[in-house]
Design a protein that fits this description.
Layout: H1 3-55, H2 62-72, H3 77-103, H4 110-138, H5 142-165, H6 169-195, H7 206-241, H8 244-259, H9 262-277, H10 282-309, H11 311-318, H12 326-352, H13 356-413
Helix pairs in contact: 1-4, 1-5, 1-7, 1-8, 1-9, 2-4, 2-7, 2-9, 3-4, 3-7, 4-6, 5-6, 7-8, 7-13, 8-12, 8-13, 9-10, 9-12, 10-12, 11-12, 12-13
Length: 414
């Protein structure tokens, strides 16, 4: 199968599963917000955002590193997989202990603390499942990844509806998340054993760990700073303002934007193994970058325009009149979405040519900028300030990445 056909096939497979995912989450978001109300929805938003700040420490970039290196050399998989799984197990348990400790230091309700514990423990399952999914992507067998996502979303949707109808609140949602993550792990393990390797586990080689961690950490830190863009706003809103309603309003707008990120993410996922394979063929790689950037810009521009024009009606339709104030935040975050989409392609390109350290430095700067701006804007403008901060941080990141890539390509052409 030639490059174009494979790219189209993998995009269509992931697009189908992502459309299913977003449809389910669209109605699920409406259901959760309306059942919980503004205040409890803000509490649930804090639980997810707070735990998300730690989730990368269960992986530290190992999934991304696994995709890149296996895409280049499939023979490495037998050496890498067992050792990466062992590292992830230790990291997940350590992260769980750290979350327990920190959550008891901050001023949150008892039901939030218990929900945090449950979500944190579920990271053990999702981290191992993520390693298996990375192998599907590295082998460009996106159909297995897509089916895994469909099963995960379907189970999550059913379980969330049941626990809320039974009035178990955010604790019920956390328990459901735990068991669904376990189910996803079991499915991925079965698929890997049946279609890829009869023998998954091999001898642990501790001498490899240092090299694996060293190469993975730049990818992991990039993810850390990306998470800060999306999650630190909600955490800071909660801790600075101590206003669950403000958190609920911001969470309502940001969840809509998050659910629309599937197009750039799908394109990045399918491009990454292909770009990694062509990392020594600069002219072909630049052509892929150019065409994919144009495509995603046009799609994102259409989506952003619709959100800006009809923000009030969209919020009213989805969440109801209690969440109407979130429309302003949605308009600002729509501009962020357009910029973020371009950044996603640029970061994928740089990662494929071993420039993840450059991305790391840019993301570090952006994350620090995001936090500092939040400290200024949130006390003055509440959740609107958090939206402004997110947009400014992302546009600064785009400017830096754009000029770096342009200069890099000019030097290669010389």
């Amino acid at each position: 199968m030639n490059l174009l056909k494979k790219l189209i096939k993998n995009n269509l497979v992931l697009l189908s599963s992502s459309i299913f995912e977003k449809i389910v989450f669209f109605f699920l978001t409406i259901f959760i917000a309306r059942i919980l109300g503004v205040e409890d929805y803000g509490k649930w938003g804090f639980v997810l955002s707070f735990t998300s700040l730690f989730v990368i420490f269960t992986d530290i970039g190992l999934n991304r590193f696994l995709v890149r290196d296996i895409s280049r050399n499939k023979k490495k998989i037998k050496i890498y997989l067992t050792n990466i799984l062992a590292i992830k197990f230790i990291l997940s348990l350590t992260t769980f202990i750290i979350i327990i400790f920190i959550s008891n230091l901050i001023n949150i309700s008892k039901d939030q603390i218990l929900a945090v514990y449950l979500i944190a423990f579920s990271f053990l399952f999702s981290s191992i499942a993520g390693a298996f999914s990375s192998i599907f992507i590295a082998y460009e067998k996106m159909e297995f990844n897509a089916l895994s996502k469909i099963i995960h979303v379907a189970l999550l949707g059913i379980s969330y509806v049941l626990v809320l109808l039974l009035d178990y609140g955010i604790i019920g949602l956390a328990v459901a998340t735990l068991f669904v993550n376990l189910a996803s792990l079991i499915y991925n393990f079965i698929i890997l054993k049946k279609y890829f390797f009869k023998k998954i586990f091999n001898r642990i080689r501790f001498n490899l760990w240092k090299n694996l961690i060293k190469n993975a950490i730049p990818f992991g830190l990039i993810t850390v700073f990306s998470i800060i863009y999306f999650k630190i706003d909600i955490v800071m809103l909660s801790l600075i303002l101590k206003d669950d309603s403000a958190v609920g309003l911001y969470n309502a707008a940001s969840r809509l934007i998050f659910n629309l990120m599937f197009l750039p993410i799908i394109l990045s996922q399918t491009l990454f193994p292909i770009m990694s394979r062509y990392f020594k063929k600069s002219s072909k790689l630049r052509l892929i970058l150019k065409n994919s950037s144009i495509f995603i810009f046009l799609i994102s521009l259409i989506i952003s325009s619709i959100l800006i024009l009809f923000a009030d009606k969209i919020i009213l339709l989805i969440y109801g009149d209690k969440f109407l104030e979130a429309a302003i935040s949605l308009r600002i975050l729509s501009l962020f979405y357009l910029i973020w989409s371009l950044n996603a392609i640029l970061k994928t390109y740089l990662s494929s040519i071993d420039k993840q350290k450059t991305i790391l430095y840019v993301m570090l700067f952006g994350a620090i900028l995001n936090i500092l701006l939040n400290l200024y804007f949130i006390p003055k403008f509440s959740f609107i300030g958090a939206s402004i901060t997110t947009f400014i941080s992302e546009i600064v990141t785009l400017i830096i990445l754009f000029f770096y890539v342009r200069n890099l390509n000019k030097n290669v052409q010389r």
